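Input sequence (145 aa), recorded before submission:
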Amino acid sequence: MLLRRALAGVSITASRPASFTTRKLMSGGGGDSPDDSAAAEGEKFDARAYLQTRYFGPANEFRKLFYLRNFHEFYQRFHSEWNPEKARLLEYGGGPCIHTLISAAPYVSEIVFADYAEDNLKEVRKWRDGEPSCFDWSSFFKYVV
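Predicted structure, token format:
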């Protein structure tokens, strides 16, 4: 719970963007563009398996350190460009991951998290709501905090 305080006070909304029909109309396609098939594939995506293979265990330590160091450096360097009390962050297509949000939290008042795959949103909501079955991001928080 202590680690969750890094995002305390930051509103996190996990939602799905516009419908596939609207997306098709916006892209001008009739449903056969690569973007449409990728969105359909997102419906079959196993978020928990992705998290376990890409973000868990010693084999993924380099990836974790690389991402977190670069996100942290970005926010440290550029946060003076905006007012944290008014700043909002849009994470669009974030998958089931919150590691990109950890370093941003002190510098924004709201995070809007959007993804097409419902399974990804379920994983983020589990973490946001503190469900016991959520993915354990504690090593990521420990690195940043």
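Checked by second reader. The longest strand covers residues 11-15.
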